[in-house]
Write a structure and sequence with these properties.
It comes from Pediococcus argentinicus. The protein is α/β, with parallel strands linked by helices. The protein has helices at about 20-30, 70-75, 95-100, 125-130, 145-155, 170-180, 190-195, 210-220, 230-240, and strands at about 5-10, 35-40, 45-50, 110-115, 140-145, 160-165, 185, 205, 225-230. The structure holds SN-glycerol-3-phosphate (G3P) and magnesium ion.
């Protein structure tokens, strides 16, 4: 089995992260999957962005949760990365899913619920309901840094893969290991490189695997997947290591 190459926030090394151009590029490059992050706006829209605030990647300031969808849609989410992306808007989850359907994307779609800093009451049920009512050609994987969110989403849709996210010094890793429910772990690459042993039943997809050395390491260990800002580079190294 080849290690899956999953584009982190789309092809975010070469396009503005978590935008339509980044997702199109990931599919064009042949990534096996796409990872992205979802929040809720003030009026309950499912918003695709990494940070809880719009400050770093747009020309606005403030929290997503304090803005309506129409306020968020006025912001520019491309110019921070390069002037040629001026005019790029923040996408909603529906817009990204529609794009993937239009492009007939059949890979992995890893949706990270960003509930670790702001809990966005009801986001799990909202996302689960949306996907229950939407026919999708791709394979969905939920993930979150918040164990409660992972458990809740797993309870709401046990047939969908759910992954626990964690960083190097997390205490939750032991808790996850004991849980028979969650079969996927999405740890940081630093955690993977410092833990040589893990339960074989657990599927690992570390992030953010950007260096050639880390990519080769993951391929040699035949991990389930890697989450990278540079899918094209990752695919070319994979061809060398795994054929
Ligand atoms: O889902 C993997 C990775 O995206 C987790 O960290 O902060 O980039 O969302 P972050
Ligand atoms: Mg993420």
């Amino acid at each position: 089995m080849l290690t899956q190459v999953i584009a982190h926030r789309g092809s975010s090394g070469i396009r503005p992260e978590n935008t339509i151009p980044a997702f199109i590029k990931a599919i064009e490059e042949g990534a096996d999957g796409i990872e992205t992050d979802v929040h809720l706006s003030k009026d309950g829209a499912m918003i695709i962005m990494h940070d809880e605030t719009v400050d770093r990647t747009t020309n606005g300031t403030g929290r997503i949760f304090d803005k309506t969808l129409s306020e968020l849609k006025q912001l520019d989410a491309g110019a921070y990365f390069g002037y040629e992306y001026l005019g790029t808007r923040i996408p909603t989850l529906q817009e990204v899913v529609e794009l993937l359907i239009k492009m007939d994307f059949k890979g992995e779609f890893n949706l990270e619920l960003k509930t670790d800093k702001i809990q966005y009451s009801g986001i799990e049920a909202q996302v689960a309901k949306y996907f229950k009512n939407t026919e999708i050609p791709f394979h969905l994987i939920y993930s979150s840094f918040r164990p409660k969110t992972v458990q809740l989403i797993h309870k709401l849709c046990p047939e969908t893969e759910a992954a626990s996210l964690f960083k190097l010094r997390t205490k939750s890793a032991k808790k996850f290991a004991k849980s028979k429910l969650i079969q996927d772990w999405h740890p940081s690459i630093a955690w993977v490189r410092s833990h040589r042993f893990f339960l074989p039943r657990i599927q690992l997809r570390p992030w953010t695997v950007n260096s050639e050395d880390d990519m080769r390491y993951c391929y040699k260990r035949k991990l389930k997947g890697i989450i990278t800002d540079y899918p094209e580079r990752a695919l070319s190294i994979r061809r060398e290591v795994q054929g």
